[in-house]
């Protein structure tokens, strides 16, 4: 009725070869393996722990050496499976010459408990599968260096399931942390990532959180690939920044669905001003069914580079914007590429792309398809300063009434706006005003450039710019304007 293997105040080297199996026929609540207060290096080949309960099944505490497992299989009920607190260095299936053995690592399964709880420990951990149900937190990493990865076997859910926790995965001040082929479902927050040096999620599902799918703060790098976010109560990705830093976020091949909030929120807070963001979105799908929401909402205050390519935005509610980008600093440069995307809405007052910046802007918008199935839609809406803009070969189609193809709320020169080869087809089926390309306000003159005709049909006002505010011209329906 006590520990299976206890090591205390050990120095030197301890090696356990072969397979170590610790069972629990008498339902002891003590740890299966307990190593504490030791400076030794410990080496285990395979560790199997079954039917643990109560105390952490594997407990590493106040150690300074390195504890190594090639494979660790732990199953526990109503207790933590693996705990490491100020435990020096923990290796599970570490990489050898940069390569990880995907047949090792092992499986951790905690029913009614936390699967992994590691604090103040350096990691090189590669596991096949990690699962937890109905615990305060499924996986908990605080103040760790190094790497933790869960890689699965290439099939859906093979990386494990984290379910029923207040925080499915809680990460604070960690190194590289990655999860593949996991189901993170029905938690309060799916994943909390604060100060994670590099966070990676791929081929996973984050679903039915009562709040955020991912809630991030000051995480410099995040990569999301080939995953699904659905049924979460707040934003699927909610990332905030209040530290001056260079940030890089990428999203590829991922599906987002939200009925109540922005799918992706990137929000600058006080303290993060003048930070740099490099945002890449590729081949992803954004479904919004919540009023006044956005597929992507980026509210920045610094240097912003955003590439949004070959993605789809399908909206069904009122006032939904596909991509909303607002860079609030006059001193920041915004470089935006919005290419080969598709936006469609059945709600009123939809906007495919909305960009605002009081600082210099370099904008490319080419090859996009915009379709409005209800009234008062706007294809592209922009407020620009010192612009270098190319808008070409886009198709904007309205099936009802009151649409505007391109709306420049304000353009402050000097700068160049080139508009070539776009097709704007407006149904103009009612009394609402239909417009093609509109420049509402030009506080300082800029240059228009265009040699390929833009085709605009069904517009009450095909083109407008305040008289005397521009040099150059574009071509609309075969004629140079203004």
Explained architecture:
This protein has no helices and 46 strands. It is mainly beta and 482 residues long. The strands form two sheets. It has a 44-stranded parallel β-sheet that branches. Strands 45-46 form a two-stranded antiparallel ribbon.
Structure at a glance:
By secondary structure, the chain is mainly beta. The protein contains no helices and 46 strands.
Descriptive labels:
482 residues, mainly beta, elongated, two-stranded antiparallel sheet
List low-pLDDT spans: none
**In total, how many beta strands?**
46
Give the overall pLDDT as a whole number: 97
Question: Which structural category do the helix and sheet elements fall into?
Answer: mainly beta
Strand content: over 45%
Can you tell me the overall shape?
elongated
Task: State the separation between the terminal residues, measured CA to CA.
Answer: 89 Å
Topology record:
Layout: E1 5-8, E2 13-22, E3 33-36, E4 41-54, E5 58-79, E6 82-92, E7 107-111, E8 116-119, E9 122-127, E10 129-133, E11 137-142, E12 145-150, E13 160-163, E14 167-180, E15 182-185, E16 189-202, E17 205-207, E18 214-217, E19 221-225, E20 228-230, E21 237-241, E22 246-252, E23 255-258, E24 264-268, E25 275-282, E26 285-288, E27 294-300, E28 302-309, E29 312-315, E30 321-327, E31 334-339, E32 342-345, E33 351-366, E34 369-372, E35 378-392, E36 395-398, E37 404-412, E38 416-420, E39 423-426, E40 435-439, E41 446-449, E42 455-457, E43 461-464, E44 470-472, E45 474-476, E46 479-481
């Amino acid at each position: 009725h006590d520990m299976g293997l206890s090591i205390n105040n050990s120095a030197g080297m301890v090696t356990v070869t072969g397979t170590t199996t610790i069972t629990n026929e008498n339902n002891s609540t003590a740890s299966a393996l307990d190593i504490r207060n030791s400076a030794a290096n410990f080496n285990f080949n395979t560790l199997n722990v079954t039917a643990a309960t109560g105390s952490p099944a594997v407990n590493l505490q106040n150690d300074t050496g390195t504890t190594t497992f090639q494979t660790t299989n732990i199953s526990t009920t109503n207790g933590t499976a693996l705990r490491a607190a100020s435990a020096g260095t923990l290796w599970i299936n570490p990489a050898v010459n940069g390569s990880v053995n995907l047949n090792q690592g092992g499986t951790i399964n905690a029913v009614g408990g936390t699967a992994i709880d590691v604090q103040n420990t350096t990691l090189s951990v590669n596991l096949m599968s990690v699962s937890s149900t109905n615990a305060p937190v499924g996986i908990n990493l605080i103040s760790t260096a190094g790497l933790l990865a869960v890689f699965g076997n290439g099939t859906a859910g093979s990386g494990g399931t984290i379910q029923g926790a207040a925080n499915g995965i809680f990460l604070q001040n960690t190194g590289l942390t990655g999860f593949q082929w996991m189901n993170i479902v029905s938690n309060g927050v799916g994943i909390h990532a604060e100060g994670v040096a590099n966070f990676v999620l791929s081929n996973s599902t984050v679903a039915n959180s009562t709040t955020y799918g991912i809630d991030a703060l000051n995480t410099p790098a995040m990569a999301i690939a080939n995953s699904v976010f659905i049924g979460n109560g707040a934003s699927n990705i909610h990332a905030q920044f209040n530290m001056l830093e260079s940030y890089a976020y990428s999203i590829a091949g991922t599906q987002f669905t939200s009925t109540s909030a922005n799918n992706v929120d990137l929000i600058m807070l006080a303290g993060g001003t003048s930070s740099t963001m490099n945002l890449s979105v590729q081949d992803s799908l954004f479904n919004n069914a919540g009023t006044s929401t956005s597929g992507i909402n980026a509210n920045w205050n610094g240097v912003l580079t955003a590439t949004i390519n070959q993605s789809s935005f399908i909206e069904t509610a009122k006032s939904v914007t596909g991509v909303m980008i607002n860079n609030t600093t006059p001193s920041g440069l915004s470089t935006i590429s919005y290419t080969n995307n598709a936006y469609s809405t059945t709600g009123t007052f939809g906007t495919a792309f909305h960009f605002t910046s009081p600082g210099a802007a370099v904008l490319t918008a080419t090859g996009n398809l915009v379709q409005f199935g209800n009234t008062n839609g706007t294809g592209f809406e922009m407020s620009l300063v010192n612009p270098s803009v190319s808008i070409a070969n886009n198709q904007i189609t309205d099936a009802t009434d009151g649409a505007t193809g391109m709306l420049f709320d304000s353009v402050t020169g000097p700068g160049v706006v080139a508009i070539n080869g776009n097709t704007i087809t407006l149904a103009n089926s009612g009394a609402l005003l239909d417009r093609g390309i509109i420049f509402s306000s030009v506080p300082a003159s800029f240059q228009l450039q265009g040699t390929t005709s833009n085709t605009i049909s069904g517009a009450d006002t095909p083109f407008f710019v305040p008289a005397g505010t521009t040099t150059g011209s574009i071509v609309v329906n075969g004629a140079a304007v203004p």
